Amino acid sequence: MDQFASTRTEYVVDNYYHAITARFPRLRYRCGWDSLLLWVPLSYLPTEIGDAFTRLAAKSGGRPPLVPAALVKSDSYMNRRGKNRSITPLGRPSPHRRRRASTLPNLTPTAVASRAPLMWDILRVSLWILAVLALFFFLRFLWELVPLSNLRQRAVFITGCDSGFGRALALRLVKDGMIAFAGCFTEKGEDELRKESQLLPGELHTLHVDITKDDSVKSAMKHVTLTLNGRPLWAIVNNAGIFTVYGPDSWLNISSYEKSIDVNLLGAIRVTHAFVPLLKKSGGRIVTMTSVSGRLPGLFTGPYTAAKYALEGYMDVVRLELYQYGVSVHILEPGAFKTALLSESALDERVESIWNNLLP
């Protein structure tokens, strides 16, 4: 996946911003060219095709993309590719699946000519479908350019603002004069945000939030309510997430899954439950960061993928249920971006940590 990773991390922040400030935002944002053109289309194809692509990526170059060297060198890593493999090499079809030329139908010129009207009908229908799709995307492009009014009066609560996308989004909103409540896990994150936003025209309020604890999330909701003092809360952004373990499922234990699910899934549910009453009053929005890992599985990402799949499903359900209250739900599905989360050194550390836990 590393060869597909984008360096334009601000693209995710742009999508966040559009989901909050556009009058007609999308329900799903595919962030990054790999998400839009590769991973999402693969997720709609038969499972066999997606699995074949994943295996192909794993076999090319001797190691799956983004897999640290420590994992490749270990004795537990997959089966070695020996000379006497029973599996036919990629790109070479098995002999028993090859079709003989003699078995192909012998189409006469008359038979081909009789199919010409049918082929023309298919082509004509295909062109109509393409024209309708082109018109739809053009109109949607114009539709999405319409911004909301009174942006400076709109307040947004964001989780995971210590660094990365959450931090950049909070500063972007305040720069445009909006009200941002930046939930941080550390005091250092709060201090740095306050210093960086001192000269910006909007309002930035930092607060400590631990989304794995109900009391902390409820306390954050009360703080936001008191600070707004009757003003509406326009949106919440479920941005906080972790990617702490990376390795084969046989190396992991239940605690690895519990930690990922507690933050990536239950954390977003806690925040949503706490703030939905405020959003019902304002007819606001819920914006949630999921991942292409919530649509297409990848190697060695069991805890992360399981949580993101569940989060996608939860947000789809909430979107249907909150529609009657005028609350809209929007999902960001970013692909691979070159951030500290996916750096080679960070992945190596995760693998080494799991490997060390396996040692007697």
Automatic annotation (TrEMBL):
Keyword annotations of the record: Membrane, Oxidoreductase, Transmembrane, Transmembrane helix
Keyword Nucleus part of the UniProt annotation: no
Sequence intervals crossing the membrane: 125-143
Pfam families documented for this protein: adh_short
GO molecular function, one term: oxidoreductase activity
Domain of life (superkingdom): Eukaryota
Region (Disordered): 81-103
Metal-binding listed as a keyword: no
InterPro entries associated with the record: NAD(P)-bd_dom_sf (IPR036291), Sc_DH/Rdtase_CS (IPR020904), SDR_fam (IPR002347)
GO biological process, one term: steroid metabolic process
Family: Belongs to the short-chain dehydrogenases/reductases (SDR) family.
PANTHER family: 3BETA-HYDROXYSTEROID DEHYDROGENASE DHS-16 (PTHR43313:SF1), SHORT-CHAIN DEHYDROGENASE/REDUCTASE FAMILY 9C (PTHR43313)
Protein name as it appears in the record: Uncharacterized protein
Organism: Plectus sambesii
Higher taxonomy: Eukaryota, Metazoa, Ecdysozoa, Nematoda, Chromadorea
